[in-house]
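Could someone model fe (iii) ion with this protein?
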Amino acid sequence: SYQQQLYAGTRAQLIDAIHVKLRDKRFEHVLRVEQTALVLAEQNGVDLEKASIAGLVHDYAKQRSDKDFVAMIEKHQLDPDLLNWGNAIWHGVVGAEFVRDELGINDEDILNAVRHHTTGAVAMSPLEQVVYMADYIEPGRTVPGIEEARRITNEDLQAGVAYQTAHTLAYLIKQQAPVYPGTILTYNRWVAGKK
Ligand code: GDP
Ligand code: FE
Ligand code: FE
Ligand code: FE
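Reply:
Sure, complex below.
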């Protein structure tokens, strides 16, 4: 059971609330991200309950319809430029609003960890860095270079953030995929070292 009032229920209740919204494969990924986040949190002096909750909820909105995301962008008057993007960006940036509205989680550090888990951000708290990296290196991930990503992250969390950011941007460019402006800002701060 959680000791702090970050979620009004037990971990088992939170898991049930997430499982009903996610397919089994995605749900299993979420459990692995939680476990990886707990290890990184322990190594970096981050609150373990926040790491557990943020890991469990980071992809909470992944399976919502485009229509639901558009309605949420309008309901919370989020940046209208978001309407030009899709599920890959929305499930984090907009997904945090589903976590708040439906799960009653109001902790801004947890919500920012959800918001920024896909794109990173210029300013990321230690918890946000932990969730960003746990999502990337959880044991189910098999992308080339993953062993190096795990080694670097376990040695130096911030170096891991830089590694992921550089590799994700290179991947997007290779695919000629549209790059979200926030992704570029993350790159400028964490990889190019721009102040
Ligand atoms: P997942 O939800 O656990 O599958 O992982 P993420 O939330 O980290 O990423 C979701 C998808 O978004 C991945 O396919 C990423 O490559 C993609 N992604 C990350 N940044 C960007 C971006 O700037 N632009 C686009 N188009 N896709 C991105
Ligand atoms: Fe995600
Ligand atoms: Fe990720
Ligand atoms: Fe994920």
